Amino acid sequence: MSEPRSIETQKKNTANKEQSKSAFAQRFRGYFPVVIDVETAGFNAQTDALLELAASVLHLDESSGDFSIDETIQFNIEPFEGANLEPKALEFTGIDPTNPLRGAVDEGEALKTLFKMVRKKMKAAGCQRAIIVAHNAAFDLGFLNAATERCKIKRSPFHSFVSFDTTTLAGLALGQTVLAKACIAANIDFNNDEAHSALYDTEKTAELFCHIVNKWRALGGWPLADTAADTETNVQ
After folding, report:
1. Known catalytic residue at 159
2. What does DSSP assign to residue 222?
3. What is the rounded average pLDDT of the residues 86-94?
4. pLDDT(134) > 80
């Protein structure tokens, strides 16, 4: 009967596997973060319309170790058949779903275009699965999952329930949970007149996420000390 491997051996084997991955994939355990924001006609993902969707994918500068926005796409979306449109929600967002100048597309078309871009960027980064980043992420992920199911899309690149929530991250790093206040605390410009559009909120959320991740690295929180030590030992 063979003896169980020591903790040190397991650590070294894990470190060796990690070193074979891209720097991007190493940072989030193979996950590819995609920053998402949705604007909707209510709070119920099953019954209320998805009206806007925007997504930012990120770039890692391997020389500096900093993340930044790589590309952002945005869609105005036609309410699905039978969708509920809450007047108060429309008043809050200022969206008129009937305006022909919106250039709205079917939610299935929007999702297929988004998923195609995410898969391409994810592959280039050496990652295996996309993960949503959002402010109050459960809300956005709920609407994304509901739309994916309605459109009968069998394979989504996104994890169905795991997410990175910038509300929590900002509360930890900056002592703020409201997007606007967290951005101000991070010295990120924020214009309340432009807020509550999917495009604007997505890019501000992406800037906030990058700020927190980059700051954590600058403070010495990444890479992990044990991993760095194992890597140095392996190189020697």
Report:
1. no
2. S
3. 96
4. yes
| Angle 228-230-234 from CA coordinates, rounded to 5° | 115
Nearest-5° angle of CA 49, CA 206, CA 94?
35
Q: For residue 70, give the amino acid letter.
A: D
Q: Which residues pair with 71 in a beta bridge?
A: 57
Q: How many residues does the chain have?
A: 236
- Helix and strand numbers (H, E) in the chain are 9, 5
pLDDT of residue 7: 60
| Integer CA distances (angstroms), 159 to 58, 156, 207, in order | 17, 8, 22
Task: List b or e across 167-187, with b for residues whose CB sees 16 or more CB atoms inside 10 angstroms.
Answer: bebbeebbebbebeebbebbe
Catalytic residue among 59, 135, 159, 196: 196
What pLDDT score does 233 carry? 41
